[in-house]
Structure to design on (752 residues):
């Protein structure tokens, strides 16, 4: 039954998400000429790499492969990476595999610097859509089409939508995640709630009750702006609908949208009404998450990869529930409109001396990371599960249920937009959270500054 | 004949000197001079190093740098200049005072030297993490002490790094604290090099300890003070690491300095032309301030 549910989630959810993130293709097609020449150069280098380097591997000589990723010690995905690497390297004694994990924000800087300097590792973690799209346009990523043929039966092509540019596949998706509203049910019970509020009015009433009881309703890291977007984008999506937000993120519509301005004002009211922990503005996401797990906040909106850590904590796991953010404007939005999609991806550098072997290795590694990640609760699988999933934690199962009812996905705003636009966007989100500008200022600024 | 030998020897010496200097010169040009010129070249382009797209735009990056509120270079430069002022008028006098006291040869001189110099040896990232804990609104020692002293109330703990009015100064305090020992050590070496005869002669003439410092020691270590001032100002203009760890330029860009903006332009926005323009501007500012300090000290001479 669960497998069937998963199959439904995978088939329906991913199709929706890939429709949602046409940005991958759009981004690529927006710079069509650059992409074409880039793709040509990638193919050329890929051919060269495979013809030159397949010989040593075939003759049994060992080859070195290096990988960079963000699965640091404190990352929810750490265990899945370690377990997957142990399995895949054991199956490939001919490969000397080394890997390095770098903290999320620092990694974004490091990988971009490495791409610019042409000093990329053989295999690297990346986010899909525009983030990877910049590298693909530059011809720095190895085309995975050939290697994919051996895995097509296990990895449905629809999963590759966010990493497909000009019809070619450039990444191996791992897991898919959405923004979830996590609730500490012990704290909610103190103000008379036995379930997560299902409507926006109920949610506000719950926050008021929590505040009156001396409990901080919402926890959010202001030091890491992407955490603020998890709230803000949910509010905007549930106010104007997923399609309008998708159009804006993908450059098909302007930011000059009154609905967005009103939604930003709605979000800012949450800030001004004192629902957010004021200390959060100086805290990192790890600190805010620790506070939530320590019972400091009632709600914490963040990626569903957190299910792994929450469920693994025996004391806390039983207290927490995950739900969808409630609808604010039922005329335009509805439940089933979600923020997220398959974003975590592994890719291979076009400059790798062993690109063909690295591509094969990456597919095997991605499959196992997905396997362990799903079992750990780090997200829903991009690959078709081939294992018993009955022991999946209840939080991840709840996420599966939410995704099973999904209508449309909007990919995270900082992933869907190109680097310059994404940072401009994050800068304005920062100002909204700090109440330096209101909704009108937000849309006017973005409409003016995003090129 | 003798002249010929002299000429040959001189030529040979020159060649030897040149050959000895050549490796250093190559390194200096390759590592320092060439990148500066390359940055200057890139700053004239709209350059995305990831995609390799490059189009000549002249001085547009510089114009945008000074005029765009979205980039906020002028505010960041103002923050750096404030740090430079604090360094010169707070940090250096403190360093000088410590150097003069320790230079007298007080008991436990070496222990004090080691203690004051220790922050210089500790990694900036470690110091950043240390001060993150000190400033933490809930359990930071600063708020706990202020609460014990009844300066703040238990339910109203200041968020030092999260409030745009306090974040900048909260970042500057560890920055200034960390390098007090560095400047102290430079000046201490100068104070220790003052000939003892000069001090004794002044004392015999009835000079007080303060007068000895004022009229003997300070003029003697003036060149070291000049170096310290240059280091303090250029170090402030280049400040990056502690601010990156503590606030990364936030909240609301309140603690941005030119280097944090440069990193954002280069590695987050892929705007290598603008990043290079900021780098060139930083080099130019450091150079100009070094010249100004030199001129001021020369006039005083």
């Amino acid at each position: 039954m669960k497998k069937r549910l998963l199959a439904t989630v995978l088939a329906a959810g991913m199709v929706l998400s890939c429709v949602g993130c046409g940005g991958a293709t759009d981004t690529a097609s927006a710079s069509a000429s650059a992409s074409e020449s880039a793709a040509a150069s990638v193919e050329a280098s890929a051919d060269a790499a495979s013809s030159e380097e397949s010989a040593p591997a075939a003759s049994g000589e060992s080859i070195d492969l290096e990988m960079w990723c963000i699965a640091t010690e404190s990352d929810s995905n750490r265990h899945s990476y370690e377990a997957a690497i142990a399995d895949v390297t054991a199956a490939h004694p001919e490969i000397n595999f080394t890997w390095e994990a770098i903290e999320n924000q620092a990694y974004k800087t490091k990988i971009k610097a490495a791409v610019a300097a042409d000093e990329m590792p053989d295999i690297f973690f990346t986010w899909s859509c525009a983030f990877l799209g910049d590298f693909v346009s530059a011809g720095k990523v190895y085309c995975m089409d050939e290697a994919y043929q051996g895995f097509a039966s296990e990895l449905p092509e629809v999963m590759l939508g966010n990493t497909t540019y000009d019809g070619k596949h450039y990444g191996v998706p791992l897991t898919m995640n959405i923004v979830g509203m996590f609730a500490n049910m012990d704290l909610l019970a103190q103000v008379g709630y036995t379930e997560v509020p299902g409507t926006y009015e109920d949610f506000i009433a719950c926050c008021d009750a929590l505040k009156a009881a001396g409990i901080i309703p919402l926890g959010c890291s202001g030091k890491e702006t992407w955490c603020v977007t998890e709230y803000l984008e949910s509010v905007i999506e549930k106010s104007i609908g997923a399609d309008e937000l998708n159009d804006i993120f993908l450059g098909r519509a302007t930011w000059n949208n009154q609905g967005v301005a009103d939604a930003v004002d709605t979000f800012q009211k949450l800030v001004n009404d004192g629902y957010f922990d004021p200390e959060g503005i100086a805290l990192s996401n790890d600190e805010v998450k620790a506070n939530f797990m320590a019972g400091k906040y009632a709600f914490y909106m963040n990626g569903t990869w957190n299910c792994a850590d929450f469920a693994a904590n025996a004391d806390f796991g039983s207290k927490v529930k995950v739900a969808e953010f409630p609808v604010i404007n039922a005329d335009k939005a509805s439940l089933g409109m979600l923020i997220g999609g398959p974003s975590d991806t592994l890719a291979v550098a076009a400059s790798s001396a062993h690109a063909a072997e690295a591509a094969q290795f990456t597919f095997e590694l991605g499959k196992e990371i997905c396997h362990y990640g799903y079992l750990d609760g780090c997200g829903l699988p991009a690959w078709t599960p081939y294992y018993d999933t009955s022991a999946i934690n209840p939080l991840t199962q709840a996420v599966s249920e939410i995704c099973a009812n999904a209508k449309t996905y909007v990919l995270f705003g900082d992933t869907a937009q190109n680097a310059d636009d994404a940072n401009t966007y994050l800068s304005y989100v920062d100002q909204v959270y700090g109440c330096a500008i209101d909704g009108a200022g937000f849309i006017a600024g973005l409409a003016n500054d995003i090129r | 004949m003798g002249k010929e030998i002299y000429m040959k020897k001189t030529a040979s010496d020159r060649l030897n000197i040149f050959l000895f200097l050549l490796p250093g010169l190559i390194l200096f040009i390759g590592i320092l001079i060439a990148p500066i010129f390359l940055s200057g070249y890139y700053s004239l382009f709209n350059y995305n190093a990831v995609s390799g797209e490059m189009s000549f735009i002249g001085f547009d990056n510089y114009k945008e740098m000074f005029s765009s509120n979205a980039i906020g270079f002028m505010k960041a430069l103002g923050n750096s200049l404030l740090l430079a002022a604090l360094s010169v008028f707070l940090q250096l006098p403190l360093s000088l005072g410590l150097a003069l006291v320790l230079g007298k040869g007080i008991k436990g001189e070496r222990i004090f030297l080691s203690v004051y110099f220790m922050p210089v040896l500790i990694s900036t990232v470690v110091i950043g993490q240390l001060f993150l804990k000190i400033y933490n609104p809930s359990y930071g020692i600063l708020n706990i002490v202020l609460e014990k002293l009844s300066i703040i109330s238990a339910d109203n703990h200041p968020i030092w790094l999260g409030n745009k009015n306090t974040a900048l100064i909260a970042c500057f305090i560890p920055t200034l604290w960390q390098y007090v020992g560095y400047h102290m050590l430079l000046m201490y070496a100068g104070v220790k090099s003052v000939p003892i005869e000069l001090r004794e002669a002044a004392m015999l003439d009835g000079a007080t300890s303060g007068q000895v410092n004022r009229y003997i020691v300070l003029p003697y270590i003036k060149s070291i003070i000049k170096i310290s001032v240059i280091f303090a100002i250029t170090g402030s203009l280049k400040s990056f690491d502690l601010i990156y760890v503590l606030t990364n330029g936030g909240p609301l860009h309140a603690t941005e300095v030119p280097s944090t903006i440069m990193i954002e332009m280069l590695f987050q926005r892929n705007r290598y032309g603008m990043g290079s323009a900021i780098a060139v501007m930083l080099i130019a500012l450091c150079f100009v301030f070094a010249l100004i300090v030199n001129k001021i000290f020369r006039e005083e001479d």
Notes: Chain B touches chain A through 32 residues (CB under 8 Å). The two ends of chain B are 47 Å apart (CA to CA). DSSP finds 13 helices and two strands in chain B.
